[in-house]
Amino acid sequence: MRLPAVRFLPSSSAPAVVDANARIARLARTGNMEGARATFEAMPLRTTASYNALFAGYFRNHLPDAALRVFQRMPSRDLASYNALISGLSLRRHTLPDAAAALATIPYPPSVVSFTSLLRGYVRHGLLADAIQLFGQMPERNHISYTVLLGGFLDAGRVDEARKLFDEMPAKDVVAWTAMLSGYCQVGRIAEARTLFDEMPKRNVVSWTAMVSGYAQNGQVNLARKLFEVMPERNEVSWTAMLFGYIQAGRIEDAEELFNAMPDHPLAACNAMIVGFGQRGMVDAAKAVFNRMCERDDGTWSAIIKAYEQNEFLMEALSTFREMLHIGIRPNYPSVISVLTVCAALAVLDYGREVHGAMLRCSFDMDIFAVSALITMYIKCGNLDKAKRVFDMFEPKDVVMWNSMITGYAQHGLGEEALRIFDDMRLAGMVPDGITYIGALTACSYTGKVKEGRDIFNSMGTNSGIKPGLEHYACMVDLLGRAGLVEEALDLIKTMPVEPDAVIWGALMGACRMHKNAEIAEISAKKLLELEPGNAGPYVLLSHIYTSSGRWEDASKMRKFISSRHLNKSPGCSWIEYDKRVHLFTSGDVLAHPEHAIILKMLEKLDGLLMESGYSADGSFVLHDIDDEQKTHSLRYHSERQAVAYGLLKIPEELPIRVMKNLRVCGDCHSAIKLIAKITSREIILRDANRFHRFKDGFCSCRDYW
Description:
The N and C termini lie far apart (70 Å). This protein has a 6-stranded mixed beta sheet. It has a two-stranded parallel ribbon with strand order 1-2. β5 (657-661), α38 and β6 (684-687) form a beta-alpha-beta unit. It is elongated. The relative contact order is 0.03. Among the domains are: 485-569; 573-700, no CATH class. The longest helix has 17 residues, at 596-612. It is mainly alpha-helical.
């Protein structure tokens, strides 16, 4: 930094100098270092205090190099200069040794402020042992020194040591009392906090708010409200603390009533209401709060995106995230993770890549939680290669990342690779958890590895000390059922140490559908009706089994039963991403799409090509007793075929066509898409409710084992 030649005096009480020094400090506090520097350069007379104000401002605004340059060029320094230097160097962990060296080399007798500045740095960075040692060496202490170390003990959860120090304090101000009270609240010792509150010689609004917040955070919301009502004064933080308590307790109606009664609606309170409404599924109310806000921060955007995501307003979540980026708001971790979850749910790879780019710009690519969500997004969007590259580049890996890759390979039908990663995980010293075993067992199930699956299941307790749960038994039932061992799967269910749930009976039901075992299917359907009386799925499957066996009368009775019980069946739908838009297709309703004319032409063209290749429609996947021509017509308009047809029309030939379906892919469509991939020389990736199917050259990655 080049400083102009001006007059210098170590000190001056001239009003112009004092005013300029105060202006430098004020501008620095607001982050306007350009203005502070301009004021400094315009001064015809500078003092040591002028330099102190400028370089302390640089430190405060995270410009340490500029601060040190000013310090090194000071014509004269006083004790305040060295205190400011120690304080500035204590802001960053890696410069704490420099701060300690500065304290040791001060050319003046160091003051209590000198020691306390370094003490605060140790506490700020969690170096409590160093802080305790320095505190013991201090020749003089004041109430601030004690309060700083008290905060260090409380931040580390060492409440009893904090209380001992608190009792030793020669003088305690309201800050120390409130810090000790809050420390008790943070560890759930609410009775001791209240005793301390009652003993306080003087309370302020911060003390009252701390006690209200303590009750609220520890589930005692009614007591929090009683204390809130008798507060002699309240501020925004008081109101917001009470609001947080209601939201945390799930009492959104009380929170809304309090919110409406607030004299002002600070940013934190509005953000909290958006979160609370989102948790209760009140998306319109959350959106109304968001729209009324004059000021928004990254927490606001994160809250509304989360509200959309958790309530399956998925497209709204994506568009809101893009709007946030467009207006220049830097995303935070929660918003990135929420939108990656949405991209994974919708399998919209282009959006996912866009979010990955935002992560790189914001340096979130080194955060383990964000990277785990990124890996999951790429896996669920069908880009396993990219997921593996991200996984390989990140260190150290946690169990969540390993689980994502194991499950991802399993869902893509790559059982050998999934089990190889399972072995690599253990070789790396990572202990598998329950989710790891679900992924490994799923890999065995999807690839017919019965022996390997049995070995893994039986080794859980021995190798990891994990007792198999419902999810693991469901995997084993699925594994045995897919392999045609339906009776053995039923025997396993009968001997389970826990009561089987709907997932387990559903897995057995799927196996019965695959192997046309109507007898055990009827047992499964009966159990599922008891567990999920409103779910039509098991009866639709049973109807499929009857239909595929030519038992049209039984199938008809089953359809009448479904109708009479008002059971709900989720309609089959598929979607595909093109040109940053999600295009939705519903089975049998091709006319709903605005480009239905060209889609119909493509479907007719594909029909002709399929017939020429020897394809014959499998009418067993049509539930109704209609003639073969009508069955073929019905199958042609299944949602996944519509989506594939649209992809052939729109997606460039060098790119794979990626389709997502909400239900399991239809067996006839599976056969047809294999042939379509071969005829058109295209790669088609279809993700259904269970797994991925990668169609290429007339084959599927599932090897028809699904």
